[in-house]
Write a structure and sequence with these properties.
globular; 7-stranded mixed beta sheet; alpha/beta; Spore Coat Polysaccharide Biosynthesis Protein SpsA, Chain A; two-stranded antiparallel ribbon
Length: 221
């Protein structure tokens, strides 16, 4: 299969801060494992040709939808950059024709198929598409220097890249987890501030937040 655009779902985390006895992406949110919502979004994409899930294979039984997805799988690494390398190696070996990749987090269940398609389409004009959030509180540092929050923003997944632009610059020991900063400064980057519902589950109480947000968003449809 000619896979021009590929989705990568990062599902290798163990969720130490979450406090559950299984990785948080397999905890139940409104009757389904959290990762299932991300799987739905990937399956609904009209632009992506293939999906690669980076994960611990021993967790496969925790999601029937994942097990029966027909997706490719790559082994997770010790840290996120190692898991990304595993995904990139899998793509390079099996889909050398790949042009664009979009990276999703299995613990961010509000991603949509439409957003995936929008990011991959934007790669026709940009080298990278980055999800960003404005900083709404005061921004501080340990030196107590005054900082202007308007000069800063937070980055999140999903993020999309022209694969052959990113790959030569990718390093697992880069001091930031934001992949876009590994690209040359002159590359074209699109900053998307419009995905405001992008809740990523870090702590167990956020499952309740996610339940409420899903109900709220369903009520707006």
């Amino acid at each position: 299969m000619n896979a021009k655009n590929i989705i990568i779902i990062m599902s290798g985390g163990v969720g130490n801060r979450f406090g559950a006895n299984i990785p948080k992406q397999y905890c139940i949110l409104n009757g389904r494992p959290v990762i299932d919502y991300v799987i739905d979004a990937a399956k609904g994409s009209k632009t992506a040709d293939k999906t690669v899930v980076v994960m611990d294979p021993s967790c496969m039984e925790l999601s029937e939808e994942l097990k029966n997805s027909g997706f490719d799988f790559a082994l997770n690494g010790k840290e996120r950059p190692d898991s990304l390398k595993s995904a990139f190696d899998h793509i390079t070996k099996n889909y050398p024709e790949c042009e664009g990749v979009i990276i999703l987090d299995a613990v961010a269940p509000f991603v949509t198929s439409e957003l995936i398609d929008d990011y991959l389409t934007k790669l026709n004009d940009y080298d990278a598409v980055i999800t960003c959030q404005k900083i709404t509180g005061a921004l501080g540092n340990y030196d107590f220097d005054p900082l202007d929050r308007e000069k800063y923003y937070m980055t999140q997944s999903p993020e999309a890249f022209r694969f052959k632009t990113l790959l030569p610059h990718f390093k697992t020991d880069f001091p930031s987890q934001e992949l876009a900063w590994q690209l040359p400064r002159e590359t074209k980057k699109y900053l998307n501030f419009d995905f405001k519902d992008n809740l990523k589950l870090t702590y167990d109480f956020q499952l309740r937040y996610a339940e409420y947000l899903m109900e709220y968003l369903d009520g707006k449809k």
